[in-house]
Design brief:
207 residues; alpha+beta; Alpha-Beta Plaits; four-stranded antiparallel sheet
């Protein structure tokens, strides 16, 4: 049976929620350096600045094909919210990022073989009103490991709060103004409180 959300044909001018996890649910990030290396691969391919390898050859650029809107990296999986300007750009981008990261990870931790459970999965976001809900889900992932979302270092939340900026991250697809950003952070925080209340009730009922 085909795995759910394993899309083979992508549509241009569409938003997608992309995700993947480690093989056998093993961690794919062990240290801060690992998270930053993974994000650095997106910067390499999506920033406006030209980046070259040790031989002076330029890395492929996909910023005219894909816009990264939000992200959250967890110890054994990752979530990305992307806007596709060109239908097959996401396949090329993710192939480059995932292959390069696997090579880095295997060399660093002296292992061989595949790192991920399989090809990345994707869910198309049907309408723009659902974008905030999907991005909220992405940004609240740290709650699952007992960390608050607001200061989690490996998500894009700091960019939405105006604490960081990057030309390879297009938060303006979701928030155009400072007022939008404030409303967005309140929107995410409201659900954090609900999540904590539900967890508390679940523990009480299970006692």
């Amino acid at each position: 049976m085909p795995k759910r959300n394993r899309i083979k044909i992508y549509g241009s001018e569409q938003y997608y929620h992309l995700y993947n996890r480690g093989v056998n649910r093993q961690d794919i990030f062990h240290e801060p350096e690992d998270y930053f290396y993974f994000l650095g691969l997106f910067k390499r391919h999506l920033s406006e600045e030209a980046v070259t390898d040790s031989s002076g050859r330029p890395f492929a650029k996909f910023n005219d094909e894909v816009e990264l809107v939000a992200f959250c990296l967890m110890p054994n999986h990752f979530h990305l919210l992307c806007y596709l300007k060109e239908s097959e750009g996401i396949v090329r981008l993710m192939r480059s990022v995932m292959t390069a990261y696997t090579m880095y990870f295997n060399k660093k931790y002296q292992r061989t073989g595949g790192l991920y459970e399989g090809p990345f999965l994707a869910s198309r976001i049907e309408n723009e009103t659902y974008l905030w809900h999907v991005s909220r889900y992405i940004h609240l992932n740290p709650l699952d490991i007992g960390q608050g979302f607001r200061h989690y270092p490996y998500s894009s939340i700091a960019y939405f709060a105006g604490e960081k900026r990057a030309d390879w991250l297009h938060i303006n697809n979701l928030v155009d103004t400072d007022k939008d950003a404030r409303e967005y952070l309140e929107f995410v925080a409201d659900y954090e409180t609900m999540h904590q209340d539900l967890k508390y009730l679940k523990n009480i009922l299970a006692a």
